[in-house]
Amino acid sequence: MKKDAKGAGPQVVTANALESGLVVFRAPDGRWVRAIDEAQLVRGREEAAVLLDAATADAARNIVVEPYLVDVREEDGRIMPVLLREAIRAAGGPTIVEVSAYLHAAAI
Amino acid sequence: MALYKNGSFVEDTWRFLAAEDDVPSDGAIVLGKARFLAEREALAGRNAPLGIIIEPGEGLAGIEADIHRFALVVLPFPKYTDGRAYSLARMLREEHGYRGELRASGNVLRDQVRFMWRCGIDALEVTHAGTIAALQAGAVSPVTHHYQPAGLEAVEHRLAGARPWLRRAAAHP
Amino acid sequence: MYRYDEFDRRFVAERVAEFRDQVARRLSGELTEDEFRPLRLMNGVYLQLHAYMLRIAIPYGSLNATKLRRLARIARTYDRGFGHFTTRQNLQFNWIRLEDVPAILGELAEVEMHAIQTSGNCIRNVSADHFSGAAADEVADPRVYAEILRQWSSLHPEFSFLPRKFKIAVTAAEHDRAAIQVHDIGLHVKRGEAGEIGFSVYVGGGLGRTPMVAKKVRDFLPEAELLSYCEAILRVYNLYGRRDNKYKARIKILLHEAGVDEIARQIEEEYEQVRRRGVLLLPREEIDRIAAYFAPPAFEELPARSVTLERAKALDAGLAEFVARNVTTHKVPGYASVTISLKAIGAPPGDASAEQMEAVAAIAEAYAHDEVRVSHEQNLVLPHVRLDDLPVVYAALQKADLATPNAGYITDIIACPGLDYCSLANARSIPVAQRIAERFGDPARQREIGDLKIKISGCINACGHHHVGHIGILGVDRKGEEFYQITLGGSGDEMCSIGEIVGKGFSSEEVVDAVETIVDTYLKLRQGPGETFLAAFRRLGEAPFREALYADAG
């Protein structure tokens, strides 16, 4: 289940794209991108509020759905979500091998 | 607020009494169920049309014997996901034989309108701009085939030789 | 199988047009997400963790080759080449674009399918025994009544905005394979003293946060009064079910709070009103008209024992194993029902690739009277196969990686999509199922353990039915870590019981060992191989299992 970010460390804003439903992050130039590493990183309550406001305005303009803040940490220059749920979203797919790929691998 | 009835938007001739208003001696008035119950005896002598608002949680208990006194029943939909008024509408029409105006009020979306009509509601008090536009354009819902009898049987056809629970929509009110 | 007539076709076409318009209004911004959400849910569209998910209705789990091939085509064209069969006999696609949904619905309509009411606070897909029409122990075909209910509940004007979702299941056998007692309404088709059909009606079962076994409100409802009675139940629920708290909104809570006697009284009172109008009474000829769609195929007269099969079994231990486990007695001699396990060791439970769907379609056409079922245990079933054909069917299934001989074994695990896909989940389910399956995957070991149902849910909503697993596993979030709570002794059949929580939860690393400890304890304490895990648990209680699990905890 989605949890509110605590905001103790750095944060990014995520949402799902309206048309495709795919996970997206808001980049510093206002675009919505698939890669969390390209997301705008904010620190502190004020910066986070500004970013979330901009994202909410994008939702009102029907670009994305249900934007929210996500706690992250920086590791070796990469952005990593703190919570497993958000890490799975950011990875762009499940932690398992999907059945089509599984069968394909078995056939090789 | 716009009132849609008999295929067009019309002027509302009913006066909705506020809590502090006294009951006027003439004119069509609408009261809440609680006030009606409290003033039932006094209202009995009044010689003008009477309407009642029944909130979804209030139900019909206590007014079963009075239903034929009303010329208007207003069923508020506080949220469009609150479906209790659909049951109240059908019970009024089917179990109590109510034939007066049955009006839905609230945040009515066009996607609900067909369900309302099918449950016997024949007037809509609409605030949603998209719904008003859809009603004006006559583009409420393309679904005209139904799998169950409901509400005002008069506005729907049974199909000869087909499953008896099927209905085709006729012209809506 | 039920076939659409012109009326049914037009209804679905109109509904597709309506949803196409709703999607267009959302994409154009006329509808906000808050306004659109209930509309998309009523047509099976969720927004999940990674993308939109589309749940397609498979009424009472009935499919044929044409439908399966279309599902395969949709999987390939619009998704990632696979689909997930659910515990309510439906199919989910995980990677759908909202803008593609109208086109997908159009493709489904061409093969008499849709996604109507596969979600939302309305009457959901009506489920039924997956061996319907084939089971030796059924008194009638429950799909007839499931189909009548499906029609009546489709876009029902009064019951489309209920307090919460509403699920109906039908069985016609004493042995309940449809889990009717954990449904909002469970119908048990029976015969009365004069041989006439009627229903025992159960109300208020359900899993989720507050699991409850349904209560019987009618012992024998006459066949003709099915819809009148269900309409009365739904009206009472629609009016009086709680709407202040979504976790207390199911009919089971209404029943629990008001008492079964009071709710039964209200239902009967409302029922008198509905019945008096008479409009929903089912005429004999209409029931017969629906029943004709489910008439059995032209079975041949065959000996009860197939020499071909017995010879093949003697030569192929794999086939013998498969027949012993995945083949069920049919009511007609010389035939059998085949369970196609979607639980290959190491694969995600309940998932099938487009190629596998096509393989099953081809087998069904050639050897199974073009009938396929989805079971609530997330497997597929070929209900009518000649015993003589079992060797070729087995070979074809093997080729498609669909011949895992584990039906009902410990590796035949029900699992919800969990945190890998689901936006409500708190923990992953599929990887736990895979690790358990790998631990117990050795055929001899599974055989030794015998019948054992493990069911895994990734959150308290219990889509993986963990409460009725012989071993139930519930994923929870403990301070950001996945933890798994174990329940024991649940069962979803006619001896329905809710599993008991055995003790504190286990970490993801510990949970498979914990299951192994439970299984080893059972093997040690059972009174021989004839005593199943569930029987042993019912005899022993949870104490020995708890001791074994927590002995070292101090």
UniProtKB/TrEMBL annotation, chain A:
Q: What is this protein called?
A: DUF2849 domain-containing protein
| Domain of life from the UniProt record | Bacteria
**Which Pfam family, just one, is annotated for this protein?**
DUF2849
TrEMBL record, chain B:
The domain of life is: Bacteria
User: Which protein is depicted?
Assistant: DUF934 domain-containing protein
Which species is the source of this protein? Chelatococcus albus
Automatic annotation (TrEMBL), chain C:
Outline the extent of the Nitrite/Sulfite reductase ferredoxin-like domain. Answer: 52-111, 345-399
Q: Which UniProt keywords apply?
A: 4Fe-4S, Heme, Iron, Iron-sulfur, Metal-binding, Oxidoreductase
**Which terms does the record give in the GO molecular function aspect?**
sulfite reductase (ferredoxin) activity
Note one Pfam family from the annotation. Answer: NIR_SIR
Where does the source fall among the domains of life? Bacteria
Matches recorded under Gene3D superfamilies: Sulfite Reductase Hemoprotein, domain 1, Sulfite Reductase Hemoprotein,Domain 2
InterPro entries per UniProt: NIR_SIR_4Fe-4S (IPR051329), NiRdtase/SiRdtase_haem-b_fer (IPR005117), Nit/Sulf_reduc_fer-like_dom_sf (IPR036136), NO2/SO3_Rdtase_4Fe4S_dom (IPR006067), NO2/SO3_Rdtase_4Fe4S_sf (IPR045854)
Name the EC number(s).
Answer: 1.8.7.1
Q: Which residues belong to the signal peptide in this entry? A: none
Q: Which residues form the Nitrite/sulphite reductase 4Fe-4S domain?
A: 119-273, 413-549
Q: Which PANTHER family match?
A: BLR3264 PROTEIN, FERREDOXIN--NITRITE REDUCTASE, CHLOROPLASTIC
> Under what name is this protein listed?
Nitrite/sulfite reductase
**From which source organism is this entry?**
Chelatococcus albus
